[in-house]
Every structure is written in structure tokens, then in C-alpha cells.
């Protein structure tokens, strides 16, 4: 399957349960937590992972989803979790960090991940360094710091900067650091982080892989060897994905490449038109030649420049930004991304909420910053809705 092209992989991967002759075109949803066996020998083998016996150990729907995500990521295997955050925590904990070890993560990334890693590092006596990984000196900083673990985000949230994953991977290789990439924003359609040298590709599959905002799902894809400790810890800790969530996400990812192609094309169109508007201070989109990471983005992203756009409203404070969200008539003001419908968010109060005001200022996240997950509506309708809302914000 891995030699097939991405669209084909998306439609067919994870569609066949091993050791059964009957193959439903759509997989059944296996809600049973327990499998029982006529033969005690088979039951005994199942407890060693040879069959499905208890759904904290392994389950049919999660196995199919994991097979499909691994194929999309170009990975040997995948381990799924009950949320993207659970996946990010699992990767962190698999590093066996000791007091005094160093961890590097993006200073301008997802605020919840920052807060989680801060809490974990503080508890363990691990040094956490939040860097701007898209700056040219980032690989050099990694070599100076000699961290054991580095987390990068393919496209940062919410400012959409794009680090050079290949250069970060080379720096990690030199100092023996493990590199995980949270590739939620481009999804495997836009970046296969493992092919750029990362050791783990993490997804909040809640977003583009699922694509329809109806399940919380996290995945970590990597080599079988790197995933072995994650798999055994998940069996003990129990942060597993439920069968229905796995089923919905498998159904959603069947259309990932065709959805993402359209989302990325729409985002490019929306960014171009917003960039022409005198109502906006600035537009952030890696596909614009004015974006500082445009050249890197061309090298590390595929199939476009991602489905996300952000902009600053000229002279707006928090209250005015809130009024813009309330003035939308088509797009939904919702603090997520990855839906077929356009979702608009005030970054400082939502995805960056868990950052301190100082951390937000250092990351460059202003009160006038709005992030858009560009949907499948007609892109001109999206632009008109966004600009109309900016224009109407003063009106009662
Ligand atoms: C949403 C998100 C997460 C967290 O995923 P959940 O599924 O909500 O737990 C992590 N990283 C990024 C980039 C995200 O957008």
C-alpha cells in the first residue's frame, strides 16, 4: 500500500481486518470491550497481542485507523490516542527524560502544548526552552543546547511560521535528540514529517484527518521500534481511542487529499484577497511571497501552503476583535480548525489562552490577530464574509 499514491492510500488503507474472509466494504463498529474464545490457547495468545481480547490492549476499529494513518504518514506504524494532547503527552513521556535534561519546543506554537510541556518539565526538573524554530539560527541553538527531545510544529499556531524540518532534523541527529513534529496544520497531505527526517509525526486527527469536527483523536506515527514504549504505556495508562471515534475518523480521512487540495486552494485565494484590503494591518499565509518563511514553505510543504490564514485587523483591541467575530454571517466563530466549514478564532483569547501575557507578547500574538481555518465554501463568499465583518464591527 505504501507504494501507492496518497489519494489511493487515503481511500483504501485500513480497510481489511486480518484473519477474516468476510470483508464488509464499510467496517463494522466493534463496541464490545471484550473478545471471548472457545480455546484457552487462543485466549492466552490474544493476551500477548495475537488477537482482540480487551479493547484497552487493542481494538479492531483503532487498528484499522492506525493502519490508514501510518500509510498516509509513510510510517511503519501508528499509535492512536483519545486526543491530540494525549498523543503529545505520550511522545514526551516516551523519552525517559531525567532531571537536568533539556527539551526544546516552539515559542510560537499551540498554547495548550506549551502549558502541558511546561507542567511536565517543572514536575520532572527538566529544562524547557521555547524557541522560534523557524528562525535561521534555530538549528545552531539546538546544537548548543544539546536537548534530548525537540518538538516542532510544521506550521505554527496561530502565526503560521514554517520551520525547516530538514535542518532541525540534521541538528537533532548531530546531538542525538529525538525530533517529534506536530503536523496537524498541514496534515499528512501537506507534510510527511518522517520523510524530512523527524522521528515521530504527531497529529491532532481531531482536525483535518477527521475533517468533520465529530471526534477527538490523536495519533503518533513512527518506526515500530520507537512506538513500542508508547504502545506498552498506552496499554497501562489506558488513554485509548474509542471505536466510534476511530470509525468516524477513518471515514473522514478517506477524502483527506481531495478536501485538503480544495482547502489549500481556497486558503491561497482568501489570503491573496485579504492582503489587498486596506482594512487589515497584516496577513499571515506562508504562500504569500511576503511571508518570511515562503521559501522554506516551498521546500517542506506539499500540495499548497496549508489551509490556514491569519490576519491582524487595523487598530483593533480585544473587544473590537470580538465584535468582528460576532459580525460574521457565514463563517463560524469556533476555536478549532479542520472542518468543511470556515472557522474563525481570536487567537489571543483562544489557542494562546494558556500563555502568559508576556509569552503572548514574545510570540507576537496581538489582540487584533484573527485565525481562519478556511473551509470548502466558495472562497469569494469567505472573503466577503470576513471583510464584511471587519467593516461592520463598529456598527450596532
Ligand atoms: C488541536 C491541536 C492540538 C490538540 O489536539 P486535541 O485533539 O484537541 O487534543 C495539538 N496541536 C495542534 C497544532 C492543534 O491544532
TrEMBL record:
GO biological process annotation, one example: cysteine biosynthetic process via cystathionine
Record CDD domains: CGS_like
Signal peptide: none
One Pfam family this sequence matches: Cys_Met_Meta_PP
Known cofactor(s): pyridoxal 5'-phosphate
Modified sites of kind N6-(pyridoxal phosphate)lysine: 207
GO CC annotations, alphabetized: cytoplasm
GO molecular function, a single term: pyridoxal phosphate binding
UniProt keyword terms in alphabetical order: Pyridoxal phosphate
PANTHER family: CYSTATHIONINE GAMMA-LYASE-RELATED (PTHR11808:SF85), TRANS-SULFURATION ENZYME FAMILY MEMBER (PTHR11808)
Family classification: Belongs to the trans-sulfuration enzymes family.
Protein name per Swiss-Prot or TrEMBL: Cys/Met metabolism PLP-dependent enzyme
Organism of this sequence: Stigmatella aurantiaca (strain DW4/3-1)
Amino acid at each position: 500500500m505504501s507504494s501507492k499514491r496518497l489519494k489511493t492510500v487515503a481511500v483504501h488503507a485500513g480497510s481489511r481486518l486480518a484473519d477474516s474472509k468476510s470483508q464488509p466494504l464499510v467496517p463494522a463498529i466493534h463496541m464490545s470491550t471484550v473478545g471471548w474464545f472457545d480455546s484457552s490457547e487462543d485466549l492466552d495468545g490474544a493476551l500477548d497481542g495475537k488477537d482482540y481480547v480487551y479493547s484497552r490492549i487493542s481494538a479492531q476499529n483503532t487498528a484499522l485507523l492506525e493502519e490508514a494513518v501510518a500509510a498516509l504518514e509513510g510510517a511503519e506504524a501508528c499509535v492512536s490516542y483519545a486526543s491530540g494532547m494525549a498523543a503529545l503527552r505520550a511522545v514526551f513521556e516516551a523519552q525517559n527524560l531525567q532531571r537536568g535534561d533539556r527539551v526544546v519546543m516552539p515559542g510560537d506554537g499551540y498554547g495548550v502544548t506549551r502549558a502541558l510541556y511546561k507542567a511536565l518539565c517543572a514536575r520532572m526538573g527538566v529544562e524547557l526552552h521555547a524557541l522560534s524554530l523557524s528562525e535561521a539560527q534555530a538549528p545552531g541553538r539546538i546544537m548548543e543546547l544539546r536537548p534530548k527531545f525537540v518538538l516542532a510544529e510544521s506550521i505554527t499556531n496561530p502565526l503560521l511560521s514554517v520551520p525547516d524540518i530538514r535542518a532541525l532534523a540534521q541538528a537533532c541527529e548531530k546531538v542525538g535528540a529525538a525530533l517529534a513534529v506536530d503536523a496537524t496544520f498541514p496534515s499528512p497531505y501537506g507534510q510527511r514529517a518522517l520523510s524530512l527526517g523527524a522521528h515521530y509525526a504527531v497529529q491532532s486527527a481531531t482536525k483535518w484527518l477527521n475533517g468533520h469536527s465529530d471526534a477527538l483523536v490523536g495519533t503518533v506515527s513512527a518506526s515500530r521500534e520507537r512506538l513500542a514504549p508508547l504502545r506498552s504505556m498506552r496499554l497501562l495508562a489506558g488513554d485509548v481511542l474509542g471505536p466510534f471515534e476511530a470509525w468516524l475518523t477513518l471515514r473522514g480521512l478517506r477524502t483527506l487529499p481531495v478536501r485538503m487540495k480544495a482547502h489549500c486552494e481556497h486558503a491561497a485565494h482568501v489570503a491573496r484577497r485579504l492582503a489587498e484590503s486596506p482594512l487589515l494591518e497584516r496577513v499571515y499565509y506562508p504562500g504569500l511571497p511576503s511571508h518570511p518563511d515562503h521559501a522554506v514553505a516551498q521546500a517542506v510543504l506539499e500540495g499548497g501552503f496549508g489551509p490556514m490564514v491569519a490576519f491582524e485587523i487595523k487598530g483593533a483591541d480585544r473587544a473590537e476583535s470580538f465584535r468582528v467575530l460576532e459580525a460574521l454571517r457565514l463563517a463560524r466563530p469556533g476555536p478549532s480548525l479542520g472542518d468543511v466549514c470556515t472557522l474563525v478564532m481570536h487567537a489571543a483569547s483562544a489557542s494562546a489562552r494558556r500563555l502568559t501575557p508576556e509569552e503572548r507578547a514574545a510570540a507576537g500574538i496581538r489582540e487584533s490577530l484573527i485565525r481562519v481555518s478556511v473551509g470548502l465554501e466558495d472562497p469569494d463568499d469567505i472573503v466577503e464574509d470576513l471583510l464584511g465583518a471587519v467593516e461592520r464591527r463598529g456598527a450596532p
